[in-house]
Amino acid sequence: MAKKEYAFYPGCSSQLKASASNYLTSVNSMCKTLDVKLTEIPDWNCCGASIGYAEGGELPRIAINARNFALAETHLPGQDIVATCAACWLGARESKDRLDENSVLMKETNEALAAAGLHYKAEVKVRHMVEVLIEDFGYDELKKPVKKPLEGVKFAGYVGCQTNRPFGIAGESFENPKYLDKMVETLGGEPVESYDQKVTCCGGALAFSEPDKSQKQIRDIVESAYDHGAEMIVTPCPLCQANVEVYQSEINKKQGTKFNMPVLYYSQLMSVAYGGSMKDAGLDGQLIRATRLEEIAKK
Amino acid sequence: MSEMKTAAYICAGCGIGDKLDVAQMEKVAQKEGKMALVRRHDFLCSPEGVALIKGDIENEGVSHVVIAACSRRAKTEAFDFPTVAMSRANLREGVIWIVAEGAEHDEVRQEMAEDYLRMGCAELKKMKLPAGNPNKADNKTILVVGGGMAGMTAALEAAETGYQVVLVEKTGELGGWAAKLWKRVPFRQPYREAQETGVAELAARVGAHPNIKIHLNSVIASTSGAPGRFNVELAQESGATTTLTAGAIIQATGASNYDIARLPELGGGLANVVDQAGLEALAKAANGQPIKRADGREVKSVVFVQCAGQRDEGGAHLSYCSGHCCATSIKQAMYFKDANPAVDTVVMYTDLRVPGMGEDFYRSAQEKGVIFTKGRASGVTAAGDVCKVNFRDLILDEEVSLDADLVVLATGQVPNSGVNIDLADDDPAKAQQVSILNLNYRQGKDLPQLTHGLTDSHFICFPYETRRTGIYAAGPVRRPMDLLQATEDATGAALKAIQAVENANIGRAAHPRVGDLSYPMVRLEGCTQCKRCTVECPFGAIDEDERRFPVFNESRCRRCGTCMGACPVRVISFENYSVDTVGNQIKAVDIPDEFSEKPRILLLACENDAYPALDMAGLAHHTYSAFVRAIPVRCLGSVNTIWITDALNSGYDGVMMMGCKHGENYQCHFVKGSELATYRMSKIDDTLKQLGLEVERVASYEVAITDNARVAALINDYAAKIVEIGMSPMKGFG
Amino acid sequence: MSAHNSQAVERYRNDFLREVEERVEEGQWVKMCMQCGVCAGSCPFGPHWQHSPQKLFMMIRAGKRQEVLSSDSMWMCTSCYNCVVRCPRQLPITHIMHGLASYAHRLGLAPKSQPTREFATMFWNNLAKKGRVNELKLTLALYFKDGLVSGIKTALGMQSIGLGMVKAKRLNPMEILGGHGLKDLKGFHAIIAKAREIEDKKKGLVS
After folding, report:
1. Nearest to B214, CA basis, from B183, B181, B256, B173
2. Predicted model pTM
């Protein structure tokens, strides 16, 4: 397999000691096995996330994304930008699409970038890590390095919103995307295909500002995973992961439930299946420990 | 035809030979069916099998053929022998595919197959090869009534195909509704802007066409005859009359706008409230410049009220949707926006309906800034120099009002369909109606209507075919529609008219039994002048002479046999379909005795929907009782009650009849046939009581062509019912 | 009434739709809504708002400026994009909601102490400061937004989670001292400032 290189956009939450640092750990382990070289875009900045809208407005949000594009074009020419965070990918891709469609916006954006001596040439492609795995490798290729199949573990594939809408992964439906189920299957695990909350919103950033409303969403997401016999939830989105994992104890406290459902990244599953240690897979970063997965990692 | 020589061909293919004792069937054909020639073939529809039959016809003088193989609806190309009379015994779809599997059913399966073979032989002996209607009529001129978009299109289409056309228009010029328009709703890509109507160009082409003769300022004073030989008298405005002959007629008399004066609550009658025709007149006057009101003031704000006097559930106004008005209002709103984008244009709708490519047009209007408000107008009043529109906003759920310089009411289409012949003669409404065709038919002066004054026949299955063969309706006279639909309609109606004249010319049925050479024959010496046939014919094909004997106009006839079913003295028949061809089949069935536990159920099935459904039940491997004996009929309307009484007298345990849905949303190919049959059967209870039989012994069902699982279930339920009420006590007497 | 707001009212008077088209992100799409209501039925926070997107669009067309801009409803958007992918007219509803909220926020008409409005503002200010989000400071700012006492309460309530995150190395207490930041922070700030200047000028938000 030829070495593949990408301009990496980890995003704020995947930094060292940030809320999704275990995502980064597992992605690095996964990429090592797949012989993928990720080079961080030098001096990348925040994408603005969706919630940045109120104060950020339209052009400033687009401009800061274009800053990352310009940096990638300059320092990592010819490489696709790959984001692991759903919101980073969405923010970047949305900005790029709008710039591609709107020449006025493009002109204004470059005017803003010029203030920092930068220029965006509209050459770069923006992709999510899941797209890279499916499109550049494919399930068959992803299966090859599997050393420890995740046999007998039932995973609810919680796709959530922002890797699924509005762009989504090519070939998948918005209402019932299957790629997580297929990935679980590829790794030898058992997908809970009837899981009916796979594209339900966890509340996103409103988990902070509207905790009660969001926790109702999270409750549905976790409860349905239990109802359908899942042992763990797997997701591609850092905010989904954090919200669904972190608030289970809150919900238990407030509503007397006994939730204790591990929530993992697909990359953690891959790292373990590829023979990675607990640490490689970032399993030590779980608030709710994924015991069954730890056992497989220790085998 | 010379001497009758019969032959039976029994196919052993498609599993027939595995499931049935074919040798035994050959004996049945010989001994009971009395066929002169009996042959078996393992693959009858193969070229070799067909050659075998053809050889016998040519070399052996075979004139009557029974094909005992698959359904009469299958392999029609292979079994096509136009020079002989033919019956089909349905062993495949009718027997081996529907009788339950297993040796325990072998006996009843064989009995069923043998009965079908007996029935085929019995039918055959009463059949003649139809020779075609001798009353051929050779006029191929097409008369078009109405010179609007539909009429002109129909005239031009027929003329371009090579037919002579006479176009009659009541007013002094061609164009109709379309000529009153400033522009029309787009009918070509990209469906974003209103287009020129093209009416003047079309009228010029019609006027210049060598095959088209135009009569302006003329109406029809009388119409008589039949396809291929209509005699028509025109009355000119001047008082002069013209007589002409035609082979077929297209009625494209269009629609009128619902009278705005009947909508005072929506401002009908106010100076600044107009209907869509009124707005077109203002737009024409403006000629592309900003539109002005009647008082000369430029319109700065306009509200379009959709469904004005339409879709009215209260019964005061039109109950239906006219289909075109939403797109028309969108177009008219664009008139304002295109001349001055600053004009406030609001289209107030409850459901915006834009058929065809109208959705693109709708989007285009939204892009131009036309505001669409989902609301229901409750009243329009004059308020100083403007109009106040009070309405309920259906999204925000509140009562609000809007001021506008001009209000346009989207009133609906009222068909110009002439006299409603179903109204009683003393009905004052009828007295006010002016006939369009002035038919001298026994059944009335104009085309029959189904609902809302619209001429039918079937809106979906046979759109242009009215209930008068040779007379076709096109455009909004038959259902509400826009110009594009009317144009398409006209083309279809022109083709139908051509079909009618061509078939009349060679003595064949026009439709739906296209090319049928049989036609109703009457033995007048037995007729009691009861008039049932003339009254019940759904197509007005039968007139009466001065002695009240029926006069059949064969080219008006659809060959459904409703007259045959109606005739109490059974003097009406077709050469290949008669009281005897069916009666003989009924009698041919072997009726086991009362103690056999083998009931016999006669199933008379409409060949258009029910019989195909039975075939498809076989195809789908639904099983049903082997005690049933199905006979296809042209229409349940052709079922003569003698068949029922004969069947019951000869020991059948029950009679099922399956026909099409009737009533307002009918699916009957012959419009009234299944309805009449149901009516007639409602009278049969007395007969049953006289015979000392339970009323359940005769049952009618409405069946659609898609009901394949259901027909099997109906049969099984009925067979169970017969077991419940017991075997008929009539066995052995018949 | 803020200065920006009175200016806008004067300029557009009754034509609120035109104002939205010119000044709200993706506002030119509002007129294309066909009022089917699929958005309303697709929103995860459907039970919590007063005005569905469908209603907001109708209110804009009806010129209900004050009601729209002071509505709480668009602040309920979780950016899940369900309405966007289901809209038969393909309206970017999520962005229009963001745009309306942002416009109302800039005009000073958005509801005071609307929690999402406050959080969204904090979020942007947090990221704009160093170029990347400082999760600890963001969290603390959120807890203490209503003052010290209630902040300590909230923080205590969430203590176990916070400690868990620290233990799992997913929250860094040292971030309070600085945390991740850009090297070319100056350039980053210059880009935001310039972009904002262009946008404000275009949308008439210059005082």
Report:
1. B173
2. 0.89
